Amino acid sequence: TFAIFMVCVATWSSTQALIGTWRDPSLWLTIARIEHYGHVFIPSVFLHFVHAIIGLRQPRRLAMSYAVSVICFLLVPTHLLIRSIDLNGVAKFALNAGPLYLPYMVWFVGTVVEALVKLRRAIIAQSQPFEKLKLKYIFWATLIGYAGGMPNFLYVFDIDAYPLIPFSTYL
User: Fold this and answer.
1) Pick from 160, 159, 60, 153: which is nearest to 110 by CA?
2) How far apart are CA 104 and CA 157, in angstroms?
3) Is the CB of residue 19 less than 8 Å from the CB of residue 31?
4) 153/148 Cα distance (integer angstroms)
5) CA–CA separation, 57 vs 69, rounded Å?
6) What does pTM read for this prediction?
7) Alpha-carbon torsion 129, 131, 132, 134, what sign?
8) Which of 61, 74, 81, 169 is the most buried (most CB within 10 A)?
9) What is the pLDDT of residues 2-50, one digit of tens each?
10) Spatial contact of 16 and 38, defined as CB atoms under 8 Å apart
11) Which distant-in-sequence residues (6+ apart) come within 8 Å of 23 by Cβ?
């Protein structure tokens, strides 16, 4: 599951980097939508990875999360998730949220926080020093990664957080 998680993150980050490099801004919306095809699976695959690494068996919870990812995947090409894209001065572009982007963002952040809380609880409960250390590294690495990526949601809602964005993405 970690490899699939990394493919989703790579899809998001590589297309995030590509959007502003294309000379033709008319392609930026298409690239932003391609970006979200990987983006919508990040929380579900991360939750699945955490369940696998800590040995937690909650197939219904995972199925529910993947169902939301699939629904969001189907919404990516519509204006319900991403309405349009605008040019701006700081990051060159900004997505304009569709009516379902806020619920999508809340689900995304909530699922990631749930996974991190489960991982943190597993660290506390772990008695073997090596396993505890491994889980700590995973926890801190993913927490730092998400802390760097989450500010990207702010531009979608027209919140300028410069210099946090775009530089936090490089974290």
Assistant:
1) 153
2) 13
3) yes
4) 11
5) 19
6) 0.85
7) positive
8) 81
9) 788 888 777 777 777 666 676 776 777 888 888 888 889 999 999 999 9
10) no
11) none
